[in-house]
Amino acid sequence: MSDNKKYQTEVDFKQIFTTPSRWMGLVYLVVLVSIIVAGKYYVQHQDYISDNDPKFINSINLERETEVTEQKGQLQEGIDVNELGNNPSPELIATGKELYQANCVSCHGENGKGDGPAGGGLNPAPRDFTAEDGWTNGRTFESMYKTLEEGIIANGMNSYNQLTVKERFGIIHYIRTLADLPDITEDELSNLDLTYSLADGRTTKNQISLEKATKLVSKEKTESFNYVKSNFNQTGDVAIVTNHTSDIDRALYSLNNTNDWKSDMTRFKKLVLSDIPQNGFNASVVNLTNEEWAQLHSKLVTLYSVN
Ligand code: HEC
Questions:
Q1: What is the pLDDT of residue 70?
Q2: Which of 86, 108, 134, 273 is most buried by its number of CB atoms within 10 A?
Q3: Separation CA 2–CA 45 (nearest Å)
Q4: Which of the pair, 16 or 157, is modelled with greater confidence?
Q5: Rounded CA gap, 71 and 304, in Å?
Q6: CA nearest neighbour of 103 among 130, 139, 68
Q7: Pocket of ligand 1 contains residue 16 by CB under 6 Å
Q8: Integer angstrom CA distances of residue 101 from 107, 108, 139, 223, 238
Q9: How far apart are CA 183 and CA 41, in angstroms?
């Protein structure tokens, strides 16, 4: 009977309001709920948070790349450069705007000020189209076209030549509505026409999926491995290599995956020593003198460099 009474007081919720010590239970509940709400907020906004962090740029780009739909290169009709250059229709500019928002905003920002979230870690920063100075190719119509055609790859600006000529004209015209850019001259339009044969039509590049690209890369790797292997077979005086490898194929293959060891002795050592048998080398490498390391390294570099 007294047990039963005890049990009842445990579950009698009215007690919570009459006994102050029971309020502690409520406090715990409130804290717990706040933590859950804050956690949910954090997770939902994580994309935004990481967008601003340069470390995450690669993963963002990768995400975008997986969205690429496979497309065979298409034959495009030639365009009338003067017509599209001098008299862009409102439709062309509207298409340009759409394409700008899909492809460029992430880096160049909504208003073209170079302040998009994915541009945060890039050096140089994405161009601010409203600034007059500091352009690499230049801010004329012709130079901007060149940028979209060829990209400025070393600086993080891709080529957009998978877009049609007309689409790229549209994008540039749209950018020109965001910034005060120099007038378009007859000369530069005819230069463009001559340089890129715009009046003649062209074939756009094939666009392939990331999966296929990865496969192609490994096919390339296989080919370059075969090349190095045949080099190895044809080169005399490879004793330094054979003496210190347990499985020459494995060794050549493990070095085939990266390039940075070629110009950097420390990386080379690290790579070999990271897992000696797995990398096809002999345990004897641990006893190599600096001079021997250098001989082994330079021999291997020669085998790969002809490639
Ligand atoms: C991944 C980020 C990124 C994206 C996406 C991007 N750009 Fe850029 N862009 C850059 C960077 C970085 C530069 C600066 C390059 C330099 O200063 O040499 C640049 C420079 C430029 C320039 C100026 C080149 C010069 O002469 O200095 C133009 C024009 C341009 N981008 C157009 C575009 C257009 C149009 C798109 C979309 C179709 C686009 N960019 C998408 C990063 C990006």
A1: 64
A2: 108
A3: 53
A4: 157
A5: 34
A6: 68
A7: no
A8: 10, 10, 20, 40, 56
A9: 48
CA-nearest of 290, 220, 281, 221 to 251 is: 281
Q: Which atom of ligand 1 is nearest to the CA of 122?
A: 12
The amino acid occupying position 303 is L
Nearest-CA residue for ligand 1 atom 5 is 104
Mutate to test the pocket of ligand 1, among 61, 108, 159 (most ligand atoms within 8 A of CB): 108
- Give the number of other Cβ atoms within 10 Å of residue 73's Cβ: 12
Task: Let me know: does 163 contact 154? Beta carbons within 8 Å.
Answer: no
Contact partners, residue 114, CB within 8 Å, separation at least 6: 107, 108, 125, 126, 127, 128, 129, 131
The reply to whether ligand 1 has any atom less than 6 angstroms from the CB of 190 is no
Does residue 126 have its Cβ closer than 6 Å to ligand 1?
yes
Closest residue to atom 34 of ligand 1, CA basis:
104
> What's the pLDDT band for 306 if we cut at 50, 70, 90?
low
Asked whether the predicted pLDDT for residue 2 surpasses 90, the reply is: no
Q: Hey, what are 137's tokens?
A: 């190719």
| Residue nearest atom 39 in ligand 1 by C-alpha distance | 104
Q: End-to-end CA distance of the chain, in Å?
A: 91
